[in-house]
Amino acid sequence: MLDKYSIRTDLALEEKERFESDNVEVQGVILEEHYDEEKEIRVTRVRIETEKGAKVMGKPVGTYLTLEAPNLSVPDEDYHREVSEELAKYIQELIETNKFNKKDVSILVVGLGNRQVTPDALGPNVVDHLTVTRHIVKEYGKYAMGMEHADMLSAIVPGVMGQTGMETVEIVRGVVQETKPDLIIAVDALAARNSKRLNRTIQIADTGIHPGTGVGNNRSGLNKESLGIPVIGIGVPTVVDAATIVNDTMENFITALESSKTLKKAGEVLRSYTAGEKYELVKELIAPHLNGMFVTPKDVDEMVNQISYTISEALNILFVKREEA
Amino acid sequence: MLDKYSIRTDLALEEKERFESDNVEVQGVILEEHYDEEKEIRVTRVRIETEKGAKVMGKPVGTYLTLEAPNLSVPDEDYHREVSEELAKYIQELIETNKFNKKDVSILVVGLGNRQVTPDALGPNVVDHLTVTRHIVKEYGKYAMGMEHADMLSAIVPGVMGQTGMETVEIVRGVVQETKPDLIIAVDALAARNSKRLNRTIQIADTGIHPGTGVGNNRSGLNKESLGIPVIGIGVPTVVDAATIVNDTMENFITALESSKTLKKAGEVLRSYTAGEKYELVKELIAPHLNGMFVTPKDVDEMVNQISYTISEALNILFVKREEA
Amino acid sequence: MLDKYSIRTDLALEEKERFESDNVEVQGVILEEHYDEEKEIRVTRVRIETEKGAKVMGKPVGTYLTLEAPNLSVPDEDYHREVSEELAKYIQELIETNKFNKKDVSILVVGLGNRQVTPDALGPNVVDHLTVTRHIVKEYGKYAMGMEHADMLSAIVPGVMGQTGMETVEIVRGVVQETKPDLIIAVDALAARNSKRLNRTIQIADTGIHPGTGVGNNRSGLNKESLGIPVIGIGVPTVVDAATIVNDTMENFITALESSKTLKKAGEVLRSYTAGEKYELVKELIAPHLNGMFVTPKDVDEMVNQISYTISEALNILFVKREEA
Amino acid sequence: MLDKYSIRTDLALEEKERFESDNVEVQGVILEEHYDEEKEIRVTRVRIETEKGAKVMGKPVGTYLTLEAPNLSVPDEDYHREVSEELAKYIQELIETNKFNKKDVSILVVGLGNRQVTPDALGPNVVDHLTVTRHIVKEYGKYAMGMEHADMLSAIVPGVMGQTGMETVEIVRGVVQETKPDLIIAVDALAARNSKRLNRTIQIADTGIHPGTGVGNNRSGLNKESLGIPVIGIGVPTVVDAATIVNDTMENFITALESSKTLKKAGEVLRSYTAGEKYELVKELIAPHLNGMFVTPKDVDEMVNQISYTISEALNILFVKREEA
């Protein structure tokens, strides 16, 4: 497959899939899948367990959970509530997997991305809908919340470098040093390889956000190395990389050639190319002006709006309302 | 050229260009170009004079002015003011060309598009920055404005069908019937074929906005037929149709084949395809999921922000401050 | 009471209350109250039945329902859902009271107010959260909605005169003539007399929106007279008129004088003033710069945000999801 | 004057004025005024030179410049440019007064306030319109800017405590520690005592932002003590404290009593009250529900919009375009 080399994806699931399609076993990478028929939610767990696996996957060692639910962007309050509850459960799993299990924790939610660009506004929107509690717990104590245990939730929208003149990691690191949270949850819009992932996918990873991810291309990662505390990354694909289209066109073209009478031969020659050769070819075909461009659906506003509510609600369930039940 | 058949553009200039590149004279279509070296502004006038020309161009009979200025999205207040003044001049030209030259006119500006989707928010943003005057002139008379003559400027952001449940033309027609403007200026975000047009192009046409135009695909046009009064359309390309990428990839691919040793033959065969054959091929290659998607640059927020100010300022110069000078 | 004459309120309930406090029976005005203890929702029905009652109340003949629920602005999804359901029930009641009971109706929701001024943004926000259906029913028929009956919901945010140069009624009348809805529901932010009404009150009236109402002072009413079809007004107090403070200060001052040794006499004299005399006094005390100013709480953003969701949800329940249950 | 004790103002000028009106010399406080007739700009310099003066004024030792220009909120680009240039000059003066005069400085602009509440959105809006340069200078060097000297401008919108769960000073202190700016410029919306100050006043102070200032009441100050580097505060009154209205009503009431036949005596008694007595009286009259409320004009959106542009432009002139001229 050509796309193996050339097309960027922020989803571990998609990275794994392309090996699947080649029937290649990736050493050090384990995949588990679970489908809840009633709720129509599919959860895939990709565990990258070794540095070797990490190298092949182009993603750090850690656990990547992918929730897929059809019509995540359709307005249906009850369904969204269900997804929020599932999401809360899996975020909790990742927290516990990382033996991060103390009570009354302080969590900082970081809403990454650019509020002014619709497909990149997911992170800021999630923060807009959160119920922060750190200032109340700090001032009145946890009993003010009517709870025996109370996590402290704080949140920030750091903005993007073109607006702040600062790297996001500089801002977040400063805030971490001052306010000493135990854990960061960073929410970001992602780029998918396959446009079918849009509108239906949420990825949660205990590896944070790594460099080069997201619609606006964060230059430096947010993770335990850069921030000193665990970082759980929640990502939602809202765009497709423009190079995807080039790749898909190529693949379709080769297929078309193969089924043509006169050009069948050329198709077969191209099909026989090694991955490296195809990579070079696609690189050549990608017009330079495609850099810095993204592909997004026309109803991106509804998608971002609905999914950001679902994620905020999951975080509110997990950290604000936990003890009420 | 493949693009002749397959790729949508809202710019008359680009429609004309592809015939140029084939050295085809289009009967009934006249092109004039003027370049102001000092201001670095290029103005192209495409006049579609006959129904035959209209058919070939896929655009109605009328005059299409295209202003091209480099770095329209770079923040430089003085430069933008200059462009606004040029723009005002050309809007005025179109008004006069249409023998629409009476004094104290009433103009309704319609800001088309979806405020929530960044590349489609140009029209609403232009209206946000306008200085409307109709209500003041109506209440206090033109002398309240300190002027001998006073145009009445009104403005509306009708929203898109997914938000209103109504066709834009229904809303505008209703408002026209109630408030009786003499002229409509409709501002919309457009799709270009060539991504180099983004950030630097403004099109003004005396044919209004025709169906299927814009980022969000207006289903029915705004023009003299549908509204009963002249409509000047101001359009700014903010996205590129996803199909453009497919087409460019194809062209690059054929060139690559031609210069290859083993596949040279296939390249030559493809090159020799008739336009119709190429069209069929590209149609086949366009993945169905590309429908309803658009390609836009990552800094689309700055582009839309700067250019909408430039257009508002042009309209303010033309209709609000005209008599002050 | 001084406030009887001087202080503006858009709430029929408050208008009625001041007569109550004077033990005055207002002929032609009937008040009923109902309190649902479990849901903590109080509903008051003010029926103005005669022109005489209308004159005394300063509001047109019709039914005014007021829903009061504590903490309408506190984020609690379940509670808001309950209020939405009650609200839907009472809107339905007003529709039926007006013998407006046919099936498959077409409703136009008008979101009044200025999107850019937080306490005035309620109407536009309600429209933002609506699920419009008119275009879908028109294109695919009601069976596309999976329903036997389908109302058609459309919506518009007309903007305010300072942004459009047009009276709101001109825009809405035009849209009504073009799209022929059976019924209008107009949503607006209101001014209350008592700041305790903020955050907890929603008024529904079958008399539409009358002139001079709202944060931004609509100059002309939206009602059956001006639009030709029934108009149900939904109003939420988000500001208090600045004059309220003057009045409250006066009242408190007179009380303070009465309980003072040296100034007791003056207090008694003031207390004995006729309503007319007090009115003149308060008018004198209102500093002219207070005109055009309003008083609003610092957390107005949360209030407007929460309540607008509750109202949208009520309208979605009533007109979109009705047949699904 | 009653207002001496009871009414909050964030403007040093207003604090000084009330002593003026009592013909009281405040030791340690110097006032200079300058009026530019042509530009219609009045500049007042209040210098609090001693701790004693600071105590009386309720504001820290330092220099407070107030620029007053009529119609700051009227859209007139040329006039705003003029004010921006003046403003730049006076910000520069304060920088130099503080012997802060090195070249190639790094400035962090902090946009205080709540983006969601119109009169509090001034700070965030100013940051939205800034041209930040720190990341460019850091990556490409100052020659990339085409300049011999290049300041590095960075900016942040920290949000308010109800949205972040953190004190603003915590966030800013963290960012300062990470990015090491030489100087902070903090922009905030202020409360004035006199509503005539709205729409026409900008205050610049070399004392930063002190606790309890602004529409949303910052709980902790941003200044050299809390942040370790100089802080210049730019403040614009966008609201009037609700207590102002109570006070004004009282004053008007006493005047009305004095000119009445029957109540003249009471008026005189009240007039003869000591300041302390009057203070107690007003405190009693202020209804408790007024806490947490503010008074703002209906066209607050235009005011905030225009003035935020003027301030951004001043900062762009000073730190971005300085070397181009």
Which sequence of SSEs, written as H and E, runs from N to C of chain A? HHEEHEHEHHEHHEEHEHHHEH
In total, the number of strands of chain A is 9
Using the coordinates above, name the CATH class of the largest domain in chain A.
Alpha Beta
Low-confidence stretches of chain A: 1-6
Q: What structural class do helix, strand and pairing data of chain A support?
A: alpha/beta
Radius of gyration of chain A from the CA trace? 21 Å
User: What's the helix count of chain A?
Assistant: 13
Describe the protein:
4 copies of one chain form a homotetramer. Chain A has 325 residues and is of the alpha/beta class. Chain A folds into 2 domains: 12-243 and 292-319, HybD-like (Rossmann fold, 3-Layer(aba) Sandwich); 244-286, no CATH class. Chain A is built from 13 helices and 9 strands. In chain A, helix 4 crosses helix 13 and helix 5 crosses helix 13 (300-319). Chain A is elongated and about 80 Å long. Residues 1-6 of chain A have low confidence and may be disordered. At the A-B interface, helix 10, helix 11, helix 12, strand 9 and helix 13 of A face helix 10, helix 11, helix 12, strand 9 and helix 13 of B. Strand 9 (293-297) of chain C pairs antiparallel with strand 9 (293-297) of chain D, so a sheet runs across the interface. Chains A, B, C, D: InterPro entries: Pept_HybD-like_dom_sf, Peptidase_A25. Chains A, B, C, D: Homotetramer. Chains A, B, C, D: Initiates the rapid degradation of small, acid-soluble proteins during spore germination. Chains A, B, C, D: One of its GO terms (molecular function) is metalloendopeptidase activity. Chains A, B, C, D: Its EC number is 3.4.24.78.
